[in-house]
Give the backbone structure.
Amino acid sequence: MTTANRPDRAAVWLGILLRQFPELGRELAPSRTARPAMNTGRAPRTAPSAPIRLFISDTIRDLTDGVVELEEAVCDKLRLPRPPRGTVEQRLTRLIAGLDRIGDDPVLAEHVRAEARRMARRCSLALGDAETPVRVRGRCPHCDSVSLRVFPHRETVLCVNPGCRCADPACACHSDARHRHAWARPQWRGLAEATEGDLAEMAAAQDEGAYDERGETTCESVNRRMSR
């Protein structure tokens, strides 16, 4: 996948959020498997519904506020009229449609990407989705193992070798078996140089982690649905 063909990362994260946000509402629906209350001869009593998952409710509220604030900030920065009311899905669709114009302002584009990634990750974690790591070439500079993986939502490279130990005696890898050496995105260039790896490959892996099960990017999936 070449750099020119990679989807815009803001579109990828906004697309993930557009696809997954409705699933949060379904998570709040009462369970259909709850057994009805038994008839004991007393006055009928309504069976309690399944407990509402408060963290799902909080996530819906926070993401709704976040999407509204993001769209209003974009319109304010681009000197556009205040956006009309709409559902989260409608607002996300409008943001995706406006990415070309947003891209003309690098600072605004980075803000939209960062907020979209943050909200998409919050939504995915609330739904219990496991983050699938993507393998990249190069050996870990600490253990020399081919165990480097990109975790797309966290934009982090981790060494997944449980036996990895570094030369720093104060590092947690010597006292905590669960510790993993990690490199955040700003550190990828140095990691690529240390491992003779490919910085572009790490960035591509971060984008490829947002592909859906059909092998297309979420952005492509969203555009396909919108064109129906």
